[in-house]
Specification:
Layout lengths: L2 H12 L10 H29 L13 H6 L3 H31 L6 H9 L6 H11 L8 H13 L9 E2 L5 E3 L5 E3 L8 E7 L23 E7 L21 E6 L2 E7 L5 E4 L8 E4 L19 H26 L3 H9 L4 H29 L3 H6 L11 H10 L5 H30 L1
Parallel strand pairs: 4-5
Antiparallel strand pairs: 1-4, 2-3, 3-9, 5-8, 6-7, 6-9
Helix pairs in contact: 2-13, 4-8, 4-10, 5-8, 8-10, 9-10, 10-13, 12-13
């Protein structure tokens, strides 16, 4: 081949187009453009608008600078929301990740592992709003509606017997009144030979024990302090008087107290009569034990101000555990079985295999799950809005809910709401960037 032909061949090779299509970024622009437009309209524009709006007042006409941010960090409700968000971030993601790890490892070898994980993942199939309605009913205070209190009452009643006359109380004109310590105590003192009449109300006549007999005021007896306790609800009878048709209240514990100490105690008979024989000739105060009149245990006020945040967190843990199990189980399936078997052959126990081999190999997966849950927690809104009653919503408040209330609720201040949105974005952004960097690092 001549020199001229060789040069011509080289020139042809230099101008030959790249045979691999799609390498040029220009080819990707038509495919990326719709997504970029949606991203700009739904993410970039609202973000920039919120940032600008946060520097203006409620009406949006007057520039206030950092005034909204100063008010944000001095408002008590916002500080409560910050505190609750810190509790959420510290407790909820770690609990879900740990619980998901344990359940994923325990269910790895069982026969119905897939079905078990499917059941745990099912709460993720419905919205948090619908889940909130369900858990609002689960934690209802009335045991007839709330399953948690129904279980608590059932367990309590197995180990603790109910009182005989729940809700019963002395009539207002009775010589005995309830005190701060729960006892019903006489205001005056009595001595042997006296007779004390204690009419009771606030109890249904049909609930009186079947062995109760008709009431009759006992006659005084020297050296004995006597009395009668009866249900004073006879129609047409006189108040604080033993009338025909009224029955005594048997089995009530009565105590004789002197100088602040119980010196004798007895119980009422079938006719409600009680007797203290062989008492020293001195003054005594008579009192009834509160155990006989205590209201039945009706469970705990789960949706009250002291328990509302733990209750909502527990609901979120139940919902999100399936998410953690799914991701961690996928990571477990990717662990080389030879590594685990080698550790067992070397004499490692199952706990040592879990601690020294499984967890270190799962660390990247666990980190991704944890960070994703942190992002989810910082944006939590629906569960708090639905589960927390209006009277305690302030105690359960979080930043996302506070942002909505300030912007669109009773506040109606979109300047302050935009400032909250910017702060919430700044809190979420580091976790998002961390996840993005990890994904890119794994792809390289």
């Amino acid at each position: 081949m001549t020199t001229t032909a060789k040069h011509a061949s080289r020139r042809v090779r230099r101008v030959r187009p790249d045979p691999t299509p799609g390498r040029s970024p220009r080819h990707a622009i038509p495919f990326l453009l719709p997504g970029l437009l949606l991203l700009g309209a739904l993410v970039v524009y609202p973000l920039l608008y919120s940032l600008v709006r946060s520097f203006f007042d409620r009406s949006g006409d007057e520039f206030v600078g950092l005034g909204n941010y100063v008010d944000l960090f001095t408002d008590q409700r916002t500080l409560t929301a910050f505190k609750n968000n810190v509790i959420w971030v510290v407790v909820a993601p770690a609990a879900v990740t740990g619980l998901g790890l344990v359940l994923a490892v325990l269910t790895e070898r069982i026969r119905w592992a897939t079905a078990f994980r499917l059941v745990l993942f099912m709460p993720m199939a419905i919205s948090l709003f619908a889940s909130g309605i369900i858990f609002r009913l689960v934690y209802e205070e009335d045991p007839d509606q709330g399953i948690v209190n129904a279980v608590a009452v059932g367990v309590h009643d197995v180990f603790a017997s109910a009182s005989q006359y729940p809700g019963a109380r002395p009539r207002e004109s009775a010589p005995i009144t309830a005190t701060a310590d729960g006892f019903a105590t006489t205001a005056s003192s009595y001595r042997p030979g006296d007779v004390l009449a204690i009419p009771m109300v606030g109890f249904a006549p049909q609930e009186v024990p079947g062995n109760a007999a008709g009431v009759m005021s006992p006659a005084p007896e020297a050296g004995e302090l006597r009395g009668v306790v009866w249900l004073d609800v006879s129609a047409g009878g006189l108040a604080a008087r033993t009338d025909a048709g009224e029955r005594g209240l048997p089995g009530i514990t009565v105590e004789a107290v002197a100088d602040g100490k119980v010196v004798a105690h007895t119980t009422t008979g079938a006719d409600g009569v009680f007797t203290f024989p062989d008492l020293a000739d001195r003054d005594y105060v008579v009192r009834l034990s509160p155990e006989d009149f205590a209201l039945p245990f009706r469970g705990l006020t789960w949706l009250g101000p002291s328990l509302i945040t733990p209750v909502i967190i527990s609901s979120w843990i139940w919902i999100m555990t399936g998410f953690a199990i799914t991701f961690i189980a996928a990571g477990l399936s990717a662990i080389p079985r030879d590594t685990l078997e080698a550790a067992r052959v070397d004499g490692a126990t199952e706990w040592q295999v879990f601690k020294k081999v499984t967890v270190p190999l799962l660390t990247p997966v666990l980190l991704v799950v944890f960070v994703t849950l942190v992002i989810n927690v910082l944006k939590i809104f629906e569960l708090v809005f639905v589960i927390a009653p209006g009277s305690v919503q302030e105690e359960a408040n979080v930043l996302a809910l506070q942002m909505w209330q300030v912007s669109f609720g009773s506040g109606g201040d979109q300047g302050a709401g935009s400032a909250l949105a910017v702060v919430l974005f700044l809190l979420v952004a580091p976790a998002m960037l961390f996840n993005i960097r990890r994904f890119r690092r794994e792809q390289t």
